[in-house]
Amino acid sequence: MAEDFLFSNEPEEEIETIDQGTWKLIIVDDESEVHAVTKLALSDFKFQGKGLEFLSAYSGKEAQELIVQHPDVAIVLLDVVMETDDAGLKVAQFIREEAKNNHVRIILRTGQPGQAPERQVIVNYDINDYKSKTELTAQKLFTVVMSSLRSYRDILSIEQSRQGLEKIIIASRDIFSAHSMENFIYGVIQQLTSIIGTVDEAMYATTLVASNPIENGSENKLIVFSGQGEFEESEGKLLEEVLTGEQLNACKQSLREKSIVYKDNYLFAYCSSECNHNSMLYVSGVPKTLTPSHKHLIEIFAQNVQVAYENIQLQSEVEDTQREIVYRLGEAVEQRSSETGNHVKRCLLYTSPSPRD
Questions:
Q1: Would you say 149 and 23 are in contact if contact means Cβ atoms under 8 Å apart?
Q2: Which residues pair with 262 in a beta bridge?
Q3: Could you say which DSSP state residue 287 is in?
Q4: What are the residues facing 54 on neighbouring strands?
Q5: Dist CA 278 CA 326 (whole Å)
Q6: 128-151 pLDDT, tens per residue?
Q7: Strands (E), 163-317
C-alpha cells in the first residue's frame, strides 16, 4: 500500500522570497510513510519567502492536541481512516466547532474514498479540499498547498482589517469623548499603540492654537500643541524650532504633499481640516514592516485626530462662554440682591462641566 504514496518527480517553479518565517502545516496520518513522503515532496516549498514547518500527528487525538497547541496553523493534511473509520472527520468537526478555528485550511486525504464519499463529506463537513492519495503527485500536492496558503493569507488579511477597523471605531469614540485638552495627546498615543503595536514618542502640532502669534506673520505656522517623550518640553514652540535635519524635511514633505510620510522608524501624518487649518501628527517607534492595512488605518486615524481636536476646542469655547454668561448674570442680579446673586453663582459651580484629569 506504501506504493500509493509515492510521488512522481515533476519540475517546480521557483517562488520569489520576500519575508522570513514559516507556515505551519500539520500532517495527520497513521502511516509514517505518508509523513516522510509528504515532507520530502514539500521540503523546498516557499510561499512569500516562508517555508513550511511540519507538525506530525498519528491519530485523531494527537491531531486535536496539536490544533489546540498551534492555533496559528495554516494547513491540515488530514487522513480520514485512522484509529476509526471516521477519525479524520471527527478531527475536522473538532477544529471548526470546538476549537473555533475557521482560518486553518483543511485538506482531506484518503486512501479509501469509499469509506467517506466526497460529495457527502464536502456537504456535511467544513473542509476546503478533498483528495485521494493515489491522485496526489508531487506537483498536485504543491498546487493544493499553494492555493490553500493563498486562501489562508487572504483570510488573515481580512481578519486583520476587521480588527483594525474595530480599533479605529473604538479609538475615535474614546478620543471624541475626551473633554480635556490635557488628555488629548495621551488618548492619541494610546489608540495608535493599539493600532500599530508600539509607539515611543509622539507629537501633535497645529495652526489652530490660541497662542499662535499673528503680529510676526506666523499665524499659519505649526505650533506644538502637545507631546510625549523628548517633545514633552516643546509645547508652545514653533515646529521649525523643534525639528531639524531629516525630520524637518520629512515634515515639510508631508505638508507639501498633504500625505503621510514614512521613514525608518517614524512617520509624519498630515491631518486635513474643513476649516483650512493645518495639523501634523508625528509618531516614532513605528514598526518597519507596516502592512498596507496598517497604513490605511493610520490614514483614517490621522483624519479623525484632527476632527477630534477641533471638536474638543469648540466644546471648550462653548463651555467658557456659558460660564462667562452665567457669571455676568450673577453679577447683574447681585447688584439687586446679594443672596440671589450668590445663589446664581452656586448654581454655576454645580452645573458647569468639571475638567477631567
A1: yes
A2: 267
A3: -
A4: 25
A5: 34
A6: 998 888 888 889 999 999 999 999
A7: 201-206, 223-228, 260-262, 266-271, 279-284
